[in-house]
Amino acid sequence: MFIVQGRIDKFKVQQSLKDNSARQEAYLGQALYRSGTDAVVVLDKVLLVGQLNAVKKAVDTLQIPGSRPLRADLMAAIQAIPAGNQIWAVGDLPVDDLDALGVRGPAPATEMLKTLQSGTYQMRVDTGVHALATGNFADIDSAKKVGDLARGILALARTQVAKQQPDMTRLLDGIQVSNNGRILTLRIEESGDLLKRLGDLRMIGKTLQ
Question: b/e string for 38-50 if b means 16 or more Cβ within 10 A?
Fold first, then answer.
């Protein structure tokens, strides 16, 4: 389940859900919109989005006087994210969720990713893009193997594009992968001018095709 917070126009969101054939039903005083096994509840400035059972459980929790809707460890992780990040996420990632999210790839890589237990993501956009993602793995060896695989892919990509696309090399140089015990960290620092130039080149390429 995802908790989405922001400047949300409750009426427009509800209308959009209805327009997309979501079925409305009442649940503990809240309007719950269903589509198959997924559900959405629109609160003031907050959306609860996810599988039906998870969304209902969140609404159940909110009915308990003095309850905290999030676990203490998740709340601590959220509070550790610096102010100014316009996009961020914190949560668990159970093994079964990989298939549900459509994660595909070579079997060895997929198996290594299944040891990922939780993670955080934060991104700030100003004159450039600054992103930081962390993954907490089940053991140190799994985190190191995934880190080595990611660094190997980046190194191979740099070798292949070094001569033909120098701007792409600069883009890849802005991506760093590091390990610290069971924690894998992915850091991205990209110039806005570089991203715009690459975007312009991509548009030119499409036009020429």
Answer: ebbbbbeeebbbb
Over residues 70-124, the pLDDT tens digits come to: 677 877 888 888 888 888 888 886 655 555 555 555 556 667 777 888 899 999 9
Sheet containing strand 46-51, edge to edge, reads 2-5, 46-51, 38-43, 30-35, 23-27
Residues of 161-197 as b/e, b for ≥16 C-beta within 10 angstroms? eeeeeeebbebbebbebebeebbbbbeeebeeebbee
What's the length of the chain?
A: 209
Whole-model pTM above 0.70? Answer: no
- In the chain, where are the structural domains located? 2-62, 72-208
3-state secondary structure the chain: CEEEECCCCHHHHHHHHHHCCCEEEEECCEEEEEECCEEEEEECCEEEEEEHHHHHHHHHHHCCCCCCCCCHHHHHHHHCCCCCCCEEEEEECCCCHHHHCCCCCCHHHHHHHCCEEEEEEEEEECCEEEEEEEEEECCHHHHHHHHHHHHHHHHHHHHHHCCCCHHHHHHHHCEEEEEECCEEEEEEEEEHHHHHHHHHHHHHHHHHC
Q: How far apart are CA 205 and CA 209, in angstroms?
A: 6
Question: Does domain 2-62 match CATH 3.30.310?
Answer: yes
